[in-house]
């Protein structure tokens, strides 16, 4: 595929698409009920961040938020951290999930490597959630208690979460591909009372028994009183040896005499605890509120994902990534959510596109790396599968390069709305994302999200346009963490987001806001490549290297030297059967010189068998950099946070063998 220039116009919505869009309906509502007239999305966004209280209060009315007590103030203060939203109100997240649904409509489609695709109606979902609520209540669960789950992305996980939130209890989950240490690092911090678990899982055609891990967890969690077991890998698995266990079948046995209730909690009370990747220590336990997530996800699903009851919303994720929690938000607007547990390349590399065809998916969420892999493999899903129902592809995790956008239009569907989005676990949403009434430009994120005062700052804290700076939020946002669990005086929270610009959230990404109001993410700001005072995001390097057909993946780091200069080694994973040669090295360097700049040409290129990545698939740029600088491994990386621990061995040996001289040549 030929290289495409960043900012090339690729798609524009038709007038009918604009008229039907949910954000247009909202703008019409504002005109009628608030006498506010906005001529385009950017004017609406400007109002939403300039008049923060008015905007979020309008959403409270527009989405008909149910509260058993009235709120006293929309926003307690504009100070960060510490701002409180809709103080005095009492709500319940799960109550809004089940609000006026049609019992026979499909709520969930689910499938996995060891389960065929099945559908769950809203009536079935409500019945099972009601029954599971009874089980949790009989297990002593009440408001504020922690319920944890060691489960894959399956139907039972959704039931367990909804029942937990309906009681005002606090949810946290980990995917069963997490090992014992990783799960302990998470669950021990929050002292759960109940755990839901599977016996194992299947991935890429292989079986992974997890009963020994579960037994270890039971011993390591002294507060655990009940374990609810799901025989998932093996339907006849004997899980009775687990202490104080209740089988899933019993846990969803309904007592018809007991009502389905929704515990009313304060708007800012916890809904769930998400964890950071934990690459450099114990994962941060990020607490987000019932009300903040409710309002933000209603906004994101309705206006930015443009979801409705007619949509089937899929995102490839696990329960260990915030995108699972985001996916559940699709239920808030009555959409059918589509769950898949397994490898995206099993039984072949086209399997997810076949799944999209089979499930009639309308919104297909995935990672940028999945799209670039499909691109590099020369796939043509639009030719191979019936994707007539598909209207949107959304991408996150890392920046989607312009070529990824181009590939979607040329090989998936011409009339397609592409949304590259950016946010994170910290806020459990995307705050730079898409909207169906704006055009799509190659390599650019369509817009800053409504209510999100996103800016790009230079080192002096001055706002930039058409220049790369730090991504910051300069006003409170409802789904920001209310606190970190067991974080005395919010010290860890402040160190994480507010130590660069006092009182301003610094996200840690490099961002450019264009004069068209679109955005470009250039990767993590702490992983930037700085050569001779000229900085460049790692995403730009990766975009260039992705064009080399012999290379499957790459990682670059910038290592400071004692003479004030720096070394920038590039590590590449070659395609099957290909070895790195001098000719390929020159090809890579030429591509980077042309695409980026001569000064950012790597000082050395090394072939590696694999790249270390987090369980969520992100490259370990900073830990690798520190290891190569001679830092002790146990101080810079938690191996349990990696999806492929063996990949780190190359870099450890590289540093131990004193190959820094090779890096610096």
UniProtKB/TrEMBL annotation:
<feature type="domain" description="Acetyl-coenzyme A synthetase N-terminal">
    <location>
        <begin position="41"/>
        <end position="95"/>
    </location>
</feature>
<dbReference type="InterPro" id="IPR032387">
    <property type="entry name" value="ACAS_N"/>
</dbReference>
<dbReference type="Pfam" id="PF13193">
    <property type="entry name" value="AMP-binding_C"/>
</dbReference>
<dbReference type="Pfam" id="PF00501">
    <property type="entry name" value="AMP-binding"/>
</dbReference>
<dbReference type="InterPro" id="IPR042099">
    <property type="entry name" value="ANL_N_sf"/>
</dbReference>
<comment type="similarity">
    <text>Belongs to the ATP-dependent AMP-binding enzyme family.</text>
</comment>
<dbReference type="GO" id="GO:0006629">
    <property type="term" value="P:lipid metabolic process"/>
</dbReference>
<keyword id="KW-0436">Ligase</keyword>
<protein>
    <submittedName>
        <fullName>Acetoacetate--CoA ligase</fullName>
        <ecNumber>6.2.1.16</ecNumber>
    </submittedName>
</protein>
<dbReference type="InterPro" id="IPR025110">
    <property type="entry name" value="AMP-bd_C"/>
</dbReference>
<dbReference type="InterPro" id="IPR045851">
    <property type="entry name" value="AMP-bd_C_sf"/>
</dbReference>
<dbReference type="GO" id="GO:0005524">
    <property type="term" value="F:ATP binding"/>
</dbReference>
<dbReference type="GO" id="GO:0030729">
    <property type="term" value="F:acetoacetate-CoA ligase activity"/>
</dbReference>
<dbReference type="InterPro" id="IPR000873">
    <property type="entry name" value="AMP-dep_synth/lig_dom"/>
</dbReference>
<keyword id="KW-0067">ATP-binding</keyword>
<feature type="domain" description="AMP-dependent synthetase/ligase">
    <location>
        <begin position="100"/>
        <end position="475"/>
    </location>
</feature>
<dbReference type="InterPro" id="IPR020845">
    <property type="entry name" value="AMP-binding_CS"/>
</dbReference>
<keyword id="KW-0547">Nucleotide-binding</keyword>
<dbReference type="Pfam" id="PF16177">
    <property type="entry name" value="ACAS_N"/>
</dbReference>
<dbReference type="InterPro" id="IPR005914">
    <property type="entry name" value="Acac_CoA_synth"/>
</dbReference>
<feature type="domain" description="AMP-binding enzyme C-terminal">
    <location>
        <begin position="547"/>
        <end position="618"/>
    </location>
</feature>
């Amino acid at each position: 595929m030929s290289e495409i220039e960043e900012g090339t116009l690729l798609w524009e919505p038709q007038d009918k698409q604009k008229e039907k869009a949910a954000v247009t309906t909202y703008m019409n509502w504002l005109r009628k009920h608030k006498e506010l007239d906005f001529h385009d999305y950017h004017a609406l966004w400007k109002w939403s961040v300039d008049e923060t209280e008015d905007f979020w209060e309008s959403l409270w009315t527009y989405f008909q938020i149910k509260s058993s007590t009235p709120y006293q103030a929309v926003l307690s203060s504009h100070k960060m951290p510490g701002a409180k939203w809709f103080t005095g109100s009492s709500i319940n997240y799960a109550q809004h999930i089940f609000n006026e649904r049609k019992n026979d409509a499909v709520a969930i489609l689910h499938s996995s490597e060891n389960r065929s695709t099945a559908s769950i109606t809203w009536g079935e979902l409500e019945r099972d959630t009601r029954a599971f609520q009874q089980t949790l209540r009989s297990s002593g669960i009440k408001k504020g208690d922690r319920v944890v789950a060691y489960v894959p992305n399956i139907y039972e996980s959704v039931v367990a979460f909804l029942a937990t939130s309906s009681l005002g209890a606090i949810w946290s989950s980990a995917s069963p591909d997490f090992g014992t240490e990783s799960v302990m690092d998470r669950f021990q911090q929050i002292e759960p009372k109940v755990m839901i678990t599977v016996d194992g899982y299947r991935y890429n055609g292989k079986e992974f028994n997890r009963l020994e891990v579960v037994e270890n967890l039971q011993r390591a969690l002294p507060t655990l009183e009940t374990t609810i077991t799901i025989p998932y890998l093996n339907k006849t698995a004997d899980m009775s040896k687990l202490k104080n266990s209740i089988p899933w079948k019993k846990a969803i046995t309904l007592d018809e005499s007991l009502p389905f209730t929704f515990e009313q909690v304060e708007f800012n009370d916890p809904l769930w605890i998400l964890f950071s990747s934990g690459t450099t220590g114990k994962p941060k336990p990020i607490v987000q509120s019932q009300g903040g997530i409710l309002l933000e996800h209603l906004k994101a699903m309705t206006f930015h994902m443009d979801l409705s009851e007619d949509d089937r919303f899929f995102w490839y994720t696990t329960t260990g990534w915030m995108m699972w929690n985001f996916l559940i938000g699709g239920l808030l607007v009555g959409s059918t959510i589509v769950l898949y547990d397994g490898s995206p390349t099993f039984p072949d590399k086209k399997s997810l596109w076949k799944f999209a065809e089979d499930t009639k998916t309308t919104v297909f969420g995935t990672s940028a790396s999945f799209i670039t892999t499909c691109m590099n493999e020369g796939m043509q899903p639009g030719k191979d599968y019936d994707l007539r129902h598909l209207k949107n592809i959304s991408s996150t995790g890392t920046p989607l390069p312009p070529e990824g956008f181009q590939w979607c239009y040329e090989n998936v569907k011409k009339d397609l709305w592409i949304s590259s989005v950016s946010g994170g676990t910290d806020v459990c949403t995307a705050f730079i994302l898409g909207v169906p009434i704006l055009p799509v430009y190659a390599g650019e994120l369509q817009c800053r999200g409504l209510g999100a005062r996103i800016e790009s700052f230079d080192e002096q804290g001055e706002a930039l346009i058409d220049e790369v700076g730090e991504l910051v939020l300069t006003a409170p946002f409802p789904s920001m963490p209310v606190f970190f669990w067991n974080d005395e005086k919010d010290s860890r929270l402040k160190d994480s987001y507010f130590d660069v610009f006092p009182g301003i959230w610094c996200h840690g990404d490099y961002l450019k806001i264009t004069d068209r109001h679109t955005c470009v993410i250039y990767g993590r700001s702490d992983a930037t490549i700085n050569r001779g005072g000229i900085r460049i995001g790692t995403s730009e390097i990766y975009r260039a290297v992705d064009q080399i057909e012999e290379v499957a993946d790459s990682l670059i780091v910038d290592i400071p030297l004692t003479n004030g200069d720096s070394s920038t080694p590039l590590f590449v994973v070659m395609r099957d059967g290909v070895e790195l040669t001098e000719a390929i090295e020159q090809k890579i360097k030429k591509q980077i010189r042309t695409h980026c700049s001569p000064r950012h040409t790597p000082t050395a290129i090394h072939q590696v068998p694999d790249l270390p990545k987090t369980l969520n698939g992100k490259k370990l740029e900073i830990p690798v950099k520190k290891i190569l600088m001679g830092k002790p491994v146990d101080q810079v990386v938690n191996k349990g946070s990696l999806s492929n621990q063996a990949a780190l061995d190359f870099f450890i040996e590289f540093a131990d063998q004193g190959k820094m001289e090779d890096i610096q040549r």
